[in-house]
From TrEMBL:
The lineage of its organism: Bacteria, Pseudomonadati, Pseudomonadota, Alphaproteobacteria, Caulobacterales. This is CBS domain-containing protein. It holds the Pfam family CBS. Signal peptide: none annotated. PANTHER family: CBS DOMAIN-CONTAINING PROTEIN, CBS DOMAIN-CONTAINING PROTEIN CBSX3, MITOCHONDRIAL. It comes from the Bacteria. Keywords: CBS domain. InterPro entries: CBS_dom (IPR000644), CBS_dom_sf (IPR046342), Diverse_CBS-Domain (IPR051257). It comes from Caulobacter ginsengisoli. Residues 7-65, 71-132 form the CBS domain. The keyword Chloroplast does not apply.
Length: 140
């Protein structure tokens, strides 16, 4: 299983010049906690709900602050053909909850969250249990 199999493809993106207020409204509307920030096709950061709380609300900044001033940068990325196991290791090693997925040319293709890999692990475990149940002799 590869990163491309578990990622959220074609995520909403923000520009560095977008305001925090605009991005926060977008996060609310599409029910996400993070939006990649791109300057053209180049990934320059990631704005999270946590960034907004700590760097805007916590520092009493204006909601008209450009995303570029409060986003997390640089961000962790992985290739779309990376194994899910490698993505999990990278998340653990770098202590991050989200990794942006890029293709061979470095173009953003998706985002993998801790929840995505947890769901995949649960699905695999459920599948393995189902296989064991199916292979067991009938008891009724």
């Amino acid at each position: 299983m590869q990163a491309s199999d578990v990622m959220t493809a074609n995520p909403q993106v923000a520009k560095p010049t977008d305001t925090v207020a605009d991005v926060a409204r977008r996060m609310s509307r599409i029910e996400v906690g993070a939006i990649p920030v791109l300057d053209g096709d180049q990934i320059v950061g990631l704005i999270t709900d946590r960034d907004i709380v700590l760097r805007v609300v916590g520092e009493k900044r204006s909601f008209d602050t450009p995303v570029s001033e409060v986003m997390t940068s640089p961000v962790e990325t992985c290739r779309d053909d990376a194994s899910v196991a490698d993505v999990i290791f990278q998340m653990s090693d770098k202590q991050v909850r989200r990794i942006l997925v890029v293709d061979a040319s470095g173009k953003l293709g998706g985002i993998v969250s801790l929840g995505d890999v947890a769901n995949e692990a649960s699905a695999r475990k459920a599948g393995a249990v189902l296989d064991e149940i199916s292979e067991a002799p009938a008891n009724n």
